[in-house]
Design goal:
By secondary structure, chain A is an alpha+beta fold. Chain A has ten helices and nine strands. In chain A, strands 1, 2, 3, 4, 5 and 6 form a six-stranded mixed sheet that branches. In chain A, strands 7-9-8 form a three-stranded antiparallel sheet. Chain A is globular. The structure holds a DNA duplex (27 and 27 nucleotides).
DNA sequence: TCAAAAGTGTTATCCTTACACCCATGT
DNA sequence: ACATGGGTGTAAGGATAACACTTTTGA
């Protein structure tokens, strides 16, 4: 067994950040190269300089605030990606790029003008339209995604993947349909299934498109490199984590009404929540406390204002937002 | 904003694997440089060669089975570590090493003779003696760890960390004591607290030892580089994941009794479980099915044999082992 | 016959869900 | 006064926790 972890291969390390914010009940993600450009959007990314920064996170915070003007709040490492479609050819002479994906949350005090040119916040559901079930089950799923996936499955219906699941079963488990549920945390798996089926633009770019790709039509806006995969990982992680850590408050203003909190939770989860039970779950979890103030001008009865109770961090091991059932 | 993720800094990428197995109800980890050597143990690690292997995981499987003789079953990426104590000096002329940590599970068919020389399986609680509460609360906690940590806290009792928690609160939350619990998933946080307090050998090596380190005595066997941190991450992840994914069966033989399953679950969790409720939780979760055979020679009444039901993967979104309360 | 391990039944308690209803304001 | 959103009460159902008990073998 070798004990050296030195590699003799040309590898470059970059940090890529999915920087999320919420405005007007819409979850946003910071991208370079906005829609008016020809090119696909990209997540902000930068090099890791081990001499200048002791940790990845310190490096990340520095170049993000320098280059985008957005100060980061909460930061969390997601995953390190090394296999990127078209760059996987052995005869490729370009250096291989390893990208370490990060999730960051910011409070959206940053207005468009303060951002560096080329950077802008875009709704994250522009990249994953099938993930937003707040209004209703997106028609795209029944009309485009499922027909194309079913044809893909029919070509090889019983082939199991690494976990022993056939294509049919994976489709049912991830996108629902008859007796299947749509689990909000499976954002990454759904994107990867669409990529594997060759139905997203990134698959075409990587030479793995299905003949069905044009029939299905564009399934969300594509991103450069594997950035849409990193964003899918970020959304999955955030949807899961908010249930057992109070990360949602990194996206809320200092004080807020319970309704505002619910609408942000719904925006992130991509589904409606049962209002009465949501209130009770939040209050019984003791993650918020009333300020005593009231919010007027919300249309109906004034709502009590709340703030996050930092003390829960000491009181309970997993203080998140129990979300309960759909509304 | 730059769109290039090319770095101009010398960075090398290595893969480091925490390869776990269970034998005789003891969780084991594969290490190079066993105890009879002078040097601290190390996890197996190797270079990532992007030209030879399309993904990290493929590369990992290849060199692990080549170099250790152990075939990997389940494999999962843990975290990418870049900040390693003593190498953090800006004047350091050595290339910086980024290590991508992996958790792998193997069924322990591999006997010692088949392993490459220098490789061996060692009980993981040798590195984390405070994590094994199966017999009782480890005396080490009350006798060595808490006194040293309390002195450390007393030097700066109110300084908050990034999450706003003081040293006192972090000690209580992680190691219990009066009214605090000992949460089995916090393995990484406990190790990092001990490192931050300068009480583990790795802190001395990195020039961050506390004056209290000799008074506290050796707190578990040290490892080279940041490998003990990677192992702590692996144990944390495994303890958490087995509750919602059926990963424990990657460590079990094809057929097993419910008692054997419970003892492996207890070994991994480091705590006893309530037998009757464990049985009911397992059976009601429908993750196992009876084979119809019986196991004799277990000392008392023969036990029914069970096998893992792969079908649960299709039936439920999060089929893990509910563990219930302590025994 | 007894110890040891396997396995079953039953109740108390807690949490989630579901549903019904009342409250306070602006227009 | 009434629409709108804010807010409370409570009972049904399901799951876990706690405890008592029976069964089957080997020594």
């Amino acid at each position: 067994m070798t004990h050296s972890i030195v590699t003799h291969f040309p590898v470059e390390v970059g940090l890529t950040a999915a920087i999320a914010a919420v405005r007007a009940d819409e979850p946003l993600i910071l991208v370079a190269e906005a829609a008016h450009n020809e090119r696909a959007a990209a997540l902000p990314s930068g090099p890791f300089d081990p001499l200048a920064h002791r940790t990845f996170e310190i490096g990340l915070r520095e170049w993000v605030s320098e280059q985008t003007g957005a100060p980061l709040g909460y930061v969390e490492q997601l995953y390190t990606f090394g296999d990127r479609g078209r760059q996987a050819r052995a005869d490729d002479r370009e250096p291989h790029v390893v990208s370490i994906g990060y999730l960051a949350l910011t409070r959206m005090g940053v207005e468009a003008a303060e951002l560096a040119s080329g950077a802008s916040f875009r709704p994250w559901y522009a990249f994953f339209p099938w993930e937003d079930w707040r209004a209703e089950r997106p028609a795209l799923i029944e009309q485009k995604i499922l027909p194309a996936l079913r044809k893909w499955a029919a070509r090889d219906p019983d082939r199991p993947n690494a976990y022993g699941l056939s294509r049919r079963e994976r489709i049912r488990l991830l996108f629902g349909g008859e007796n299947g549920r749509f689990e909000d945390e499976n954002v990454l798996d759904r994107y990867q299934l669409l990529y594997e089926a060759g139905l997203v633009e990134e698959a075409r770019r990587d030479g793995r498109a299905s003949p069905l790709i044009d029939e299905a039509g564009p399934l969300g806006a594509p991103m450069r490199h594997d950035h849409r995969r990193i964003l899918a990982t970020a959304i999955s992680r955030l949807r899961a984590k908010m249930k057992y850590r109070p990360v949602i408050f990194e996206l809320m203003p200092e004080v807020f009404t319970l309704s505002a909190l619910q609408r942000v939770a719904e925006a992130l989860q991509g589904r409606r929540l049962h209002t009465q039970n949501f209130r009770r779950l939040v209050e019984s979890a003791a993650v918020v406390e009333a300020t005593g103030e009231m919010s007027h001008g919300t249309g109906g009865r004034p709502a009590a204002l709340f703030r996050f109770r930092r003390e829960v961090l000491q009181e309970r091991p997993a203080p998140g937002l129990r979300l309960g059932v759909r509304g």
